[in-house]
Backbone:
């Protein structure tokens, strides 16, 4: 935690001088009652350091925070593995962790994060059911894998175990989520694609790709294996050693037969692979699709009959946060859920954890296109103002309920994770 | 008096060496000791704990992947070494013996270093659009009518990895060889000619033996750089092949520090043994 007087733009030197003078005066007047009272901190001097994956670490959010709340938010974007590593090993290097739920499952037991009191979260009761009860609608089925609600609650502020029920203490406050599927280049495939099994179709030999992040990649693999119809997992999100072996066997054979052009690890790599035509079918993330499309290259986030692989992210508080910084962090989280960020994220193709507040920050047409799956009335632009869709276009996969209701599994950390990771390493080296 | 001076010189010698000694102890020896210690520790999903166990080594040596990855690492190192040696020697030979003016020698030598003005990641990544399926190389070849379908193995293959290695590391071979060649007394070459040796015989019997230290220093650079690399392999193979460096980087990424340390220790020993063997052929100290 750092505190700086950003408003007046004081240099470190003059700040130190001022501090010395104040301290001197304080000693002189005999008013030594503790640093904070002299320092007279005000929330505007607070700097919160947030780190996370590229998806939601957006500079525009930091600018808007400064505008709306007055304090400074410093953002660092890293890839998923580095995020996990940092959350687990460098607890003093951040105040707010913007992480995915599967990462939370890994790092929560380290005690580097503190739980959040939901009574301080104004929009708590408006958070989508997926994150609280696990059910999107009262009749929904809970998908396999590390579903957010299973690692979303704990017993107390310092709780180490995950709670099965809603307890009033949340590990992460959900902010962002989406339903992922395969991205395709329709202009280079020229026929309908409707199943995950197509990823291993020899027709696309040397033109397929999968992502090299084990916790996510293994789920894509499981979707493919199940779609091929040879095997049905007991629980894709928690495979047995035999199931892991079997899954990798299928993919190693495909790899050695030259099915894959490359594996990608960062968002930009996936965009480049697709845009350059090196790959025509691959694991992909929603904004990567729009990035390809905004270059004028056709790219579809293809809904598949087996359903989606979903993921969710949220904000966690460092265990080191206290006092005014902790208050600022709560204020930030309440602001986050109040709609502006939600609207921003929805315009990129993600979903906001509190959809109804986001609605106020979107036009009716935008809401209709992104959330309700209705045809666009006019041009749909992204947050930077680039036209993404023309009038008449319909979102791939349709409405929020259609997409999030068809989630087959969540990104996962399994009981046999260490075994799986070693197998993943072997797969890459094979 | 003489004894006192000798003692004093001795002391000054120690003092002069101590800054380097301290730096090496702090930043080389201690970290390596730490790596060796951690290689015996245990790890959970998210933390490491002190222990003394051989598990990490046991897993490393019992996995067939380790052997294939080490083999691949040696293969990259060997092929890159052969190509950079041939290129490096030829370039150095041309600069040292065919360019007569010192000014031109310096100018052309500087020309060789131009690629090093940018970061090696950028130099490497710039190959990707060039070699891609719809890249410049393929489009040129198709345009010339030499091929009808794009050549796939240009990018994301072992070919691409070695090409990048050669591009990145040839200069490390050129510099030391050029350096030793410049110090060859030209009267030796004349003597060889006077004694009736032809050009090839001069090369084999005079120049190459005199260049041995340079060749060896260059080889050590190239072999250690290639064996320790991971990012070139990751980018140029499209993450599809692995060398030891990638194994370590994957482990670090997944918080498996002890297992990464064990692999690092084995890699370090392998590289040291390789260099030890190479040094058997040339006594660098004697010939420098």
Residues:
């Amino acid at each position: 935690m750092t505190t700086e007087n950003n408003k007046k733009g004081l240099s470190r030197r003059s700040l130190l001088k001022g501090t010395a003078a104040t301290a001197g005066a304080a000693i002189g007047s005999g008013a030594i009652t503790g640093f904070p009272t002299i320092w007279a901190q005000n929330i505007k001097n607070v700097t919160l350091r947030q780190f996370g994956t590229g998806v939601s670490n957006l500079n525009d959010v930091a600018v808007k925070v400064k505008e709306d709340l007055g304090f400074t938010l410093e953002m660092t974007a890293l890839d998923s593995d580095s995020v996990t590593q940092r959350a687990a090993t460098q607890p003093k290097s951040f105040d707010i962790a913007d992480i995915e739920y599967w990462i939370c499952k890994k790092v929560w037991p380290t005690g580097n994060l503190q739980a959040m009191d939901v009574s301080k979260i104004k929009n708590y009761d408006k958070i989508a059911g997926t994150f609280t009860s696990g059910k999107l609608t009262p009749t929904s089925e809970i998908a396999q894998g590390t579903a957010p609600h299973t690692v979303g609650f704990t017993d107390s502020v310092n709780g180490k175990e995950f709670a099965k029920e809603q307890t009033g203490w949340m590990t992460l406050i959900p902010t962002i989520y989406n339903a992922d599927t395969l991205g395709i280049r329709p202009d280079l495939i020229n026929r309908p694609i409707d199943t995950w099994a197509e990823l291993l179709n020899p027709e696309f030999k040397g033109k397929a790709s999968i992502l090299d992040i084990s916790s996510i990649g293994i789920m894509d693999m499981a979707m493919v294996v199940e779609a091929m119809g040879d095997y049905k997992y007991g629980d894709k999100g928690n495979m047995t050693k035999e199931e892991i072996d079997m899954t990798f066997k299928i993919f190693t054979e495909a790899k050695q037969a030259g099915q894959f052009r490359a594996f990608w690890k960062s968002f930009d790599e996936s965009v480049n692979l697709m845009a350059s035509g090196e790959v025509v079918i691959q694991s992909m993330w929603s904004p990567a699709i729009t990035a390809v499309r905004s270059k004028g290259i056709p790219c579809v986030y293809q809904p598949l009959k087996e359903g989606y692989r979903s993921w969710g992210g949220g904000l966690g508080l460092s265990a080191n946060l206290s006092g005014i910084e902790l208050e600022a962090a709560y204020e930030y989280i309440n602001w986050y859920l109040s709609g502006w960020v939600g609207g921003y994220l929805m315009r990129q193709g993600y979903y906001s954890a509190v959809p109804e507040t986001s609605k106020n920050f979107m036009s009716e047409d935008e809401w209709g296109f992104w959330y309700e799956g209705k045809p666009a009335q006019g041009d749909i632009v992204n947050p930077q103002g680039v036209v993404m869709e023309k009038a008449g276009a319909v979102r791939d996969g349709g409405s929020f309920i259609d997409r999030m209701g068809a989630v087959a599994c969540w990104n996962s950390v399994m009981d046999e994770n260490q075994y799986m990771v070693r197998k993943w390493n072997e797969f890459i080296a094979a | 008096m003489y004894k006192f001076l000798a003692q004093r010189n001795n002391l000054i010698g120690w003092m002069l060496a101590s800054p380097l000694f301290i730096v090496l102890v702090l930043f080389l020896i201690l970290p390596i000791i730490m790596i060796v210690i951690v290689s015996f520790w245990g790890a959970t999903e998210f933390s490491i704990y002190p222990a003394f166990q051989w598990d990490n080594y046991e897993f490393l040596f019992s996995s067939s992947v380790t052997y294939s990855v080490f083999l691949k690492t040696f293969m990259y190192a060997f092929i890159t070494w052969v190509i950079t040696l041939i290129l490096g020697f030829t370039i150095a030979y041309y600069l040292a013996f065919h360019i007569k003016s010192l000014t031109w020698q310096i100018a052309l030598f500087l020309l060789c270093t131009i690629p090093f003005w940018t970061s090696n990641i950028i130099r490497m990544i710039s190959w990707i659009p060039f070699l891609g399926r719809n890249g410049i190389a393929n489009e040129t070849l198709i345009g010339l009518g030499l091929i009808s379908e794009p050549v796939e193995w240009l990018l994301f293959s072992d070919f691409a990895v070695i090409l990048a290695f050669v591009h990145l590391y040839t200069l490390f071979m050129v510099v030391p060889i050029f350096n030793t060649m410049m110090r060859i007394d030209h009267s030796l070459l004349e003597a060889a000619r006077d004694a009736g040796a032809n050009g090839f015989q001069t090369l084999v019997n005079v120049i190459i033996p005199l260049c041995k230290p340079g060749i060896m220093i260059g080889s050590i650079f190239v072999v250690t750089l290639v064996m320790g690399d991971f990012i070139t392999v990751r980018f140029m193979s499209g993450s599809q092949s692995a060398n030891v460096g990638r194994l370590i980087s994957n482990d670090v990424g997944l918080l498996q520090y002890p297992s990464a340390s064990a692999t690092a220790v084995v890699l370090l020993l392998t590289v040291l043994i390789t260099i030890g063997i190479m040094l058997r052929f040339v006594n660098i100290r004697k010939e420098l």
Q: What stands out?
A: The CA atoms of residues 339 and 360 of chain A lie 7 Å apart.
